[in-house]
């Protein structure tokens, strides 16, 4: 097929794309988690004394959501070749041919610039700079470099997904205090256990795509050992808000109980012989519940405190 014909097909695909296809580029499930953790960071900052107008808070959260979507679109732009050979990602807009890579890249760049500018106008330069750095780190450091270079890709790259509460705290207060970084630590340490559990039962996908995820490079047994270590570290980090005084007794109980469950399921996966991957699937499912439970408990305490 000639280059002209390929270009014509790409243009036809782009013209056939609808709003739903462009929305899919934003990775809406990831975006929803980003918005939720950012909301908790923002409310926690207000509970700790920050003052923020409700309308500006809504605009700031919108900017963070748009920034997360921009990172998702740029990730799909860069990883289109990988997405096309992985069953988990083959149905994304670019592999399906409904959006061409150039359009996805341009869309992501516009959203990235818009999100950082909007956050600057709605809050402050620190929050905008942190959001811009988050997008840069996810796209350039993780997607373009680490993802295809090292089995530690998700460990280091997980910093991007852990930054939204810090961005939101900065948007509310103009600062990024230790409390904000405690929330960062929880998500940062949670990410390897969460993604490596997924990688254990999606190993074939990553192997076909040539992505050096831990199970592909180091094997399942080594991955299970590291999952357990990170689960224990995550459970310990989950207690930081309580230990630092911005999480109350209810949060402490939730964090302790959920952390014990996370550690137990990680141990079950650690001792699994690999013949049945149900322990890994249970751990992956619980890991999502774990993170939601901790942040929801902190949010509930802070909201309740506003009315006491």
Automatic annotation (TrEMBL):
Localisation per UniProt entry:
Cell membrane
Family annotation (Gene3D superfamilies):
UbiA prenyltransferase
* UniProt KW Zinc-finger keyword: no
Q: Give the UniProt keywords, A-Z.
A: Cell membrane, Heme biosynthesis, Membrane, Transferase, Transmembrane, Transmembrane helix
Question: What InterPro entries does the database record attribute to this sequence?
Answer: Protohaem_IX_farnesylTrfase, UbiA_prenyltransferase, UbiA_prenylTrfase_CS, UbiA_sf
User: What pathway or pathways are given for this protein in its record?
Assistant: Porphyrin-containing compound metabolism; heme O biosynthesis; heme O from protoheme: step 1/1
Q: Name one GO biological process term.
A: heme O biosynthetic process
Report membrane topology: Multi-pass membrane protein
Q: Which reaction does it catalyse?
A: heme b + (2E,6E)-farnesyl diphosphate + H2O = Fe(II)-heme o + diphosphate
- Which is one Gene Ontology cellular component term of this protein? plasma membrane
Report whether Transmembrane shows up as a keyword of the record.
Answer: yes
Q: EC number(s)?
A: 2.5.1.141
Q: Name one GO molecular function term.
A: protoheme IX farnesyltransferase activity
- List the transmembrane segments: 30-50, 56-77, 98-120, 126-146, 153-175, 181-201, 227-244, 250-267, 288-307
Pfam families tied to this protein: UbiA (PF01040)
What further note is attached to this protein's record? Carbon 2 of the heme B porphyrin ring is defined according to the Fischer nomenclature.
Q: Which PANTHER family match?
A: 4-HYDROXYBENZOATE SOLANESYLTRANSFERASE, PROTOHEME IX FARNESYLTRANSFERASE, MITOCHONDRIAL
Query: What is this protein's function per UniProt?
Result: Converts heme B (protoheme IX) to heme O by substitution of the vinyl group on carbon 2 of heme B porphyrin ring with a hydroxyethyl farnesyl side group.
Family assignment from sequence similarity: Belongs to the UbiA prenyltransferase family. Protoheme IX farnesyltransferase subfamily.
| NCBIfam families assigned to the protein according to its UniProt record, in alphabetical order | cyoE_ctaB (TIGR01473), PRK04375.1-2 (NF003349)
Q: What is this protein called?
A: Protoheme IX farnesyltransferase
Q: Which organism is it from?
A: Amphiplicatus metriothermophilus
